[in-house]
Amino acid sequence: MLRTAATLAPEDAATELLSGADALPYFDPDLDRDPLPPPVRELRDAVHAADALLICTPEYAGALPGAFKNLLEWLIGDDDPRSISGKRVGIVNISAAPTGARDAHQSLRTVLRYAGADVVTDVAIPVERAMIDGNGLVDGPMIRDRVEAVMAALVPF
C-alpha cells in the first residue's frame, strides 16, 4: 500500500519509504540514551526529516505485528521537537480479511494517540488479493481515489 501511495502522491510531494525495521533492537528504556543504537538513530532522523508520515500495517494474531510495535516504541521516547509527537500522520490500511484488520487499525490509533501524533486522516480500505499486481502495487479506481484523498490530506503539511 505504501508503494502504491507513493506513486499516487502529488507531483510536488517527495516520498520516501522507510526500511530497516528488522535491524532495530528490542525496545529497552535503558538503551534510549545517547549514543543511540545506529538503527534507532537512523529511524529517528528519518522521522525528524519528514513533514508528515503515512503509516500502513498488516494485522497478525489480531493486533499490530510485534516488530512494528517495537518500531513505534522507539519513536515514543524521542524528546526532539521533530519527533512523532505532534507530527502529522495519516493511517491507511488495506485488508482482504473479513475483519478488515480492524484490531491492528485500532491498536495503531491507540499507540499513535499515546505518542502524541496528530492523525489527520485515517482510512481502512477493503481489498481483494486480485487487486494486488505482481509488483505489490494495489490497483483499482476505488483504491486510487481513496489513496489520493489520503495523500492530499497529508501533502499540505
What labels would you give this structure?
5 helices, globular, Rossmann fold, 3 strands, alpha/beta
Quick take:
With 157 residues, the protein is α/β, with parallel strands linked by helices. Helix content is 37%, strand content 13%. It has a single domain (2-11, 24-154), classed as Flavodoxin domain (Rossmann fold, 3-Layer(aba) Sandwich).
Report on this model:
The structure is a single chain. This protein is α/β, with parallel strands linked by helices and 157 residues long. The chain has a single domain (2-11, 24-154), classed as Flavodoxin domain (Rossmann fold, 3-Layer(aba) Sandwich), CATH 3.40.50. Helix content is 37%, strand content 13%. The protein has five helices and three strands, in the order ααβαβαβα. It has a three-stranded parallel beta sheet with strand order 1-2-3, with helices on both faces. Strand 2, helix 4 and strand 3 (118-126) form a beta-alpha-beta unit. Helix 3 runs parallel beside helix 4 (102-115). The longest helix is centred in the C-terminal third of the chain and has 14 residues, at 102-115. The protein is globular, with a radius of gyration of 16 Å. 24% of the residues are buried.
Number of strand elements: 3
Largest sheet: 3 strands, parallel
Rounded to the nearest angstrom, the distance between the terminal CA atoms is 21 Å
CATH class group: Alpha Beta
What's the number of structural domains? 1
Low-confidence stretches: none
Q: What structural class results from the helix and strand content?
A: alpha/beta
The shape is: globular
Assess the beta-strand content as a share of residues: 5-15%
- Determine the oligomeric state from the structure: single chain
